[in-house]
Structure formats: structure tokens, C-alpha cells
Amino acid sequence: MNGHLQNGSEAPRPNEYDVVIIGAGISGINATYRVQTTLPDATYTILEGREHWGGTWDLFKYPGIRSDSDLFTFGFPFNPWSKPNPIATGESIVEYIGATARKFGIDKHIQFRHKVRSANWSSDEQRWVLEVENEGQTKVVRGKFVILGTGYYNYDKPLEADIPGLGNFQGTRIHPQFWPTDLDYTGKKMVIIGSGATAITLLPALVDKAAKVTMLQRSPSYILSLPQRKATDPKTWSERLFPTWLSLKLTRWFFITQAYLFYVFSRKFPKLAKRVLLGGAKKQLPKDFPMDPHFNPRYNVWDQRVCLCPDGDFFEAFKKGNAEIVTGKIKTVTSSGIELENGDKVPADIIITATGLNLEIGGKIALTIDKAPVNIASKFMWHATMLTGVPNLALIIGYTNAPWTLGADACARLLTRLMKFMKEKGYTSAIPEITEEEASKPMPALNMTSTYIEKALDRLPRGAAVAPWLPRDNYFKDNWDAWFADLGKGMRFRSVST
């Protein structure tokens, strides 16, 4: 895809690439592998604003940080997770990402401490011109195609917790996104505000040192215990019958299929799915532990994400005597704790606001086309991957109802097939276009009712009710599309001499 040479003009300039991948997290590393295998002659680089790869898993340092998806599915399909445990710590995920980058030579293409501030598509050049901050200096990087593997939330600013009187608190206040590494919570009374994956991870990790840990929730979540295998456990049937490489593939597809069938079952039979999950929770909680209201969500299974806990560690925490769960609305935060609307008071030395992430698509990069600003929220997503009216730019978005990497990989394979097609046909740009009729029934790009998602809907791109604009929610469909979808549907191609 060396367009300069194809068109008979000068050789590429310094810091000019066929593909620029932004972000060295799991999405960026995955996309890079697909670029270098599908387009072996393409030049590429990865621009990472931080000092290390890993993205979320390197940023978050709170106690117990771990995956909220099984690693057999969340891991890279081309370098499967080979350890027996399906739920992994943040540290081991970072190690796995780094090992994958080194194994395939991707690490040699990462430019750390390169923060992309702006990206302008030049119609004359048929390239993206990126302004990149590095060590206090600004440099320009050009790319024919840009892939944003920047995640879906703001790394620098967490979601502001809408909690009355929070400023009154005289103790220590923490957001899990910026957990202080020197915090000593031994013997402290801790209150975790929230009921999502972060809160459910924190509680069992804190009870061993804290005097008391209270999870304060406005409404409960569904929680599913996932058994953790150990290296000493007996081999599975696939490990006994097949070579390792095949056994790992079979395990991956088993977990993918199992999760998808459970999702379909939950949506088709919501009352039965609820009974199954609540029954599983009741069996693992202490005897006579009150299920209602603490474990009785008001919504159906998969209206919001189902939380996982390894070996039921969340439920086991309540057997230790210093963990409790409180369900109610906050009236106000006082100098020494929290007062609820029902009059109950929850004392605290430390308050943790595990109330969700500050959603943001595009990593705060100022996008422009010929210097005209791009409003991401006004755009529709082609195959949940590219934005209407925006040439040669991809957003890596995964699933809300399945492991993120499944969607990220489907996106990367579709993109690299598109880039290969463009090279073969001599096209210099691909621009998604949606008709008025297709756009008449917009849908959220992220189909969950979680509060932090609903608060960000005015900042997120949209999907529509018909293909190729459907939101991402079915891996089997997306996997098929990655290999076989009509690349011309909803897409306008251009060939411009540069």
C-alpha cells in the first residue's frame, strides 16, 4: 500500500506509514497482528501515549484487578491463553500482551510516550496527518489508514460520581481508576459505592486487611461464579485427546459458544435465567443471607453486563464476618460516612466510588477532515467499525455482551480485508455513506442500560436497524462478515492521484 511509489511520485517521507495504529492495548496489538499478516508489505507503527503496553490492564492498579471475561475468549485467537485459569489478574494480562507483542515482532513497532493530540484527513494528500506529542515536543506522523485502538473511556478523567454531599467527607476518597499505590487500608472501615465488576472485584480483595468492607449499591447486579482450574487439576478431555494447539482452539470455541448460548437463553427466557443466577448465588452465600433486595436486580439478565467472580470469591467474602452489602439510596455523605434515605448510616474511613467509567470514543483526539471538525456523536458506524463521512479511519469497538477482543478481532479482520481490497483496486480512500432511509431508525452503538453508558449516549456514535449499520452484538455474524461481507455496501471508494 505504498501509494507514493504506486503513483510514480517521491518516496515516502519520514514518519509516514501505510497504517497507523493508536494504542498498544489488547485492541491495538490484535489489529497490528492482522495488519502484518494480511498486508505483509505494508508499513505501520503503533503510537502509545503511555510508557507501557497493556492499556486498561496496565493503567488500573486497584486491589484484585482481574478480567471480567474468560481469557480463553478474551485472549488473542492467534496466540491463545494457555494457562488453565479462565479469569486472570491484571498483571498476568499485561504479561500476556507483552509476550504476544514480542513473539510476533510487534514490540519493535511501538513508539511509547507518543500521545496523539489531533488527526486531520487531507483530501489532497489522501492521508491522515497526525500531531503527536513526544517528550514535550510535537512531531507529525502521516498514515493512509488510522486505526483507533484507544478503548472506550477517558484514561485521564474518571466518571464524576453524582453523590450528594461527597465533598463533605473528611476521610480518604478514591476512584478505582486512580488507586494510590501507597494506600494502607489495614483496620479501616471501607465503603465501596457501586455494584458493577469493579465493586465485585474489590470487596473480596479488601476484606483480609480492612476492619470492615461495605458494598453500597443503589441496585444490584447479576453475578455468576466461574470455576478456576489449576495446573494440578486433571486434564480436560480435549487436553487428553488432542495436541495442545488444537485443544486450545477447542477450549476457546467452547467458551465462545457457551457464553453466546447463555446470552440467547437469557434474552429468550429472562425469568428462568434470573432464577438460575439467583439460585446459584443463594447456594454460595452464607445460610439465611437475605437475597432480597441485595441480589434481586430490577432488570432482566443482560440488560446490563453480567459480572463474573472466580470460584465464587465475592460470595465467600460474606462468610468472613467483616463484609456486608447495603442496598439503598444515598441521602448525603457526611464528614464520617454516608446517610441513606431510609435513615441508616454507614460509617467510613475510606470511600471508593466504583460508579463506572467516563466513556469516550477516540482517545480525546481532535479529528478533522480538511480542517473541519468531526462530530463523532453525529456519525453512524459501518459494521461497527468505521464512521460515516470519515475516510480511512476505524474505531475498535468490542462487545458489551461478550469479551471485548472478539469484536476487536472481527473489526481488525474486516479492516485488513478492506485495505487489501483497496490496494488491489487502486483506491486511495474508503468513505462509509448511509442513506436517509437507513438513518431514520438510529440505535445506540453500545446496547446496554448501565448508567455510565446512558450518561454518555450524546458522545457516542450510532448504529441503525439494518446492515451494515447494526450495532455489534453477535460474534458469529461479525465473524462471518469479517471474512465475507460485501465491502461495497454502504461504502464509497475514491482513487485520487497524490
From TrEMBL:
UniProt key word Transferase = no
- Top-level taxon of the source organism: Eukaryota
What Pfam families does this protein's entry cite? FMO-like, NAD_binding_8
| Cofactor(s) needed | FAD
Spell out where the chain crosses the membrane: none
Q: Which molecular-function annotation in GO is an example for this chain?
A: NADP binding
| InterPro entries assigned to the protein according to its UniProt record, in alphabetical order | FAD-binding_MO, FAD/NAD-bd_sf, Flavin_mOase-like
UniProt entry keywords in alphabetical sequence: FAD, Flavoprotein, Monooxygenase, NADP, Oxidoreductase
Which Gene3D superfamilies does this entry report, sorted A to Z?
Answer: FAD/NAD(P)-binding domain
Protein name, UniProt field: FAD/NAD(P)-binding domain-containing protein
